[in-house]
Amino acid sequence: MYPIKEVPVEAEALTDWLYQRFVEKEELLAHFYDTGSFPQPDGHKEAVSRQMTLDPVWLCAIQSFAFVSGYMWYSVLQYLYCCLF
């Protein structure tokens, strides 16, 4: 992203600026096609990836909470429906 103040107003300067952005885009795409990832922006360190794991106990607890919460809402709405009609 470029600030709007960096974009030239004059036609010739705008043409040159757009051409430079096109060259940058082509360089990024060439890097992506070669390596499978985009290069890191200046000043940023390379991201370290790690394997994603799911704790079965945590997953079971979340699912249990979802089912209990759903049942509680069902009971509340059923009670309200019975009271109104």
UniProtKB/TrEMBL annotation:
<feature type="domain" description="Acyltransferase C-terminal">
    <location>
        <begin position="2"/>
        <end position="59"/>
    </location>
</feature>
<keyword id="KW-1208">Phospholipid metabolism</keyword>
<keyword id="KW-0808">Transferase</keyword>
<dbReference type="Pfam" id="PF16076">
    <property type="entry name" value="Acyltransf_C"/>
</dbReference>
<dbReference type="GO" id="GO:0005783">
    <property type="term" value="C:endoplasmic reticulum"/>
</dbReference>
<keyword id="KW-0443">Lipid metabolism</keyword>
<keyword id="KW-0012">Acyltransferase</keyword>
<dbReference type="GO" id="GO:0008654">
    <property type="term" value="P:phospholipid biosynthetic process"/>
</dbReference>
<dbReference type="GO" id="GO:0016746">
    <property type="term" value="F:acyltransferase activity"/>
</dbReference>
<protein>
    <submittedName>
        <fullName>Acyl-CoA:lysophosphatidylglycerol acyltransferase 1</fullName>
    </submittedName>
</protein>
<dbReference type="GO" id="GO:0036149">
    <property type="term" value="P:phosphatidylinositol acyl-chain remodeling"/>
</dbReference>
<keyword id="KW-0444">Lipid biosynthesis</keyword>
<dbReference type="InterPro" id="IPR032098">
    <property type="entry name" value="Acyltransf_C"/>
</dbReference>
<comment type="similarity">
    <text>Belongs to the 1-acyl-sn-glycerol-3-phosphate acyltransferase family.</text>
</comment>
<keyword id="KW-0594">Phospholipid biosynthesis</keyword>
